[in-house]
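user: can you give me the structure for this one chain? tokens are fine.
assistant: on it. calling the predictor now.
[tool input]
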Amino acid sequence: MKEVLSLSEAQVETVSLLHERAIIVDSMVHSVSPNFFQSFQGADLRDYFQRAKNAGVTALNHMFALAAPSEHRSERDAHLKSFCNWYSIFEKHRDAAVLATTATDVETAKTQGKIAIFLSLMSEMNTIGEDLFLLDIYKKLGISSAKLVFNKKNSLGDGCIERTDCGLSELGVRTVEEMNRLGLVIDLSHSGAATSIDAMKISKHPVLFTHSGVRTKCDNPNNLNDEQIHALAENEGVLSLSAFSSFVAWPSYNGFRPTLEDLVDRVDYVKNLVGVDHVGVTSDSSEGVTRESFGPSKQRYPHLYPYDVENLHVNAFDNISHWPNVTKSLLARGYSDQEVLKILGGNLVRVFRTVFGN
């Protein structure tokens, strides 16, 4: 097999030309690091946007970062504080980044040389409960997608680390139907297998797994088994394969951490199973994450996150600047230009256009 980053001169030129044409969508980037919102006042965030642009990235799906609740502030108040933070970012960096809520917003950002940013709810569905009217309010404020479940059971269904996996609750069914009605993307990452299959069967729109992996290749509970992948193809959705090391291979795999070549192996697997129209990749990256800030997640979910901060992501794709390596890898593996364009973001834009409309 050809080395992932070993390219001919013609292929190197192809990478540059493809990035001029491509809409590259990173479907999972975190704003959960405390350093992220601290940096929006200074030059760090501008550098972040510039590095994304230099790497050819067109759009980022940011998991919505909650300002921390406190004894003086409820979770919903914390949501509003986080919206204030984000709108401050868009105002301060309006020459570099723009809020995106449609596929057309992404295409416009591409022509303007800006980064389009989607905002997505991560674990906040816990606070919505029966108050489904809040979904409409969140959409009007700029939210474009939401996870139904995050790791643990909630009122909608079971998470991927629960002992049980009973599928969607009655409220979960109603939530899927309401998200379809409003035009919100359903993100099934971190859901239990039965919960995700229920959602895919019930949803009239394609769904996303914004950051997961292949369970046949790595037995992490967040990864999809073949039944889920087939259900996803029937739903016309997309699985974005995460560069997060523990979603690619366990530490025992090679004694250190997996590589970008291993991640492309997973792309091959999904393509061969259900076709190239249902696969993408994501950096699944966090800016400013440290051993201290990641420690609580590692301690809380050791079976999900066995790696240390230094090895959180696969070698050669461990930050947003490394997207060109993905393109090189796919070309070296023998993917056609059109297949690469789909994997880099075309498949996701198709879902956005279906769910959001024009």
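assistant: here you go. The chain has one domain: 9-352. The beta strands are 24-30, 57-63, 97-99, 115-121, 143-147, 185-187, 208-212, 238-242, 279-282, 285-286.
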